[in-house]
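Last lecture ended with a question: if I hand you only a sequence, what can you say about the shape of the protein? Today we answer it with a concrete record. The protein is Leucine-responsive regulatory protein. Below, first the input exactly as provided, then the predicted structure, then a couple of comments.
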Amino acid sequence: MTVRLDDLDRKILVQLQEDGGQSLDDIAKAVGSSKTPVWNRIRKMREGGVIRQQTYLLDAEALGFEACFFVLIRTSEHDAGWQGQFLKALNARPEVMEAHRLAGDIDYILKVRVANARAYDVFYQALISEVKVHNVTALLSMEEIKSTTMLPI
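The predicted structure:
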């Protein structure tokens, strides 16, 4: 189902991305509309799949997850069975914030949030005990320069 968005829809989406906890009144005021049309548009965008879910962003460091690793994975396995096992292993680990299958020399990249290097090693040992990989390279992020969930609407 394709949802056609106009300027008002886009303004509403910007407001929701900035703070999904805003009241309908606040969103309506910010976009120059009234509450009922804003609610109807949000409902239609949810039904159309433009808005997937409402959530809260937590501060990883404030919660003790001070280390962010980008994990580059090369594998010699590419069959459906291996991929299913790999996906199951990733989904079972809340430390994996993102996982992407790539084109090029690296097959997968993971963004992993853990408390420290020792916690990363526990994650790594568990992963390689469950899934056969050819090569794993872990890169520790020294500083997060930019992080956003906002799409450029």
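Comments.
1. DSSP finds five helices and four strands in the chain.
2. The chain has a mean pLDDT of 96.
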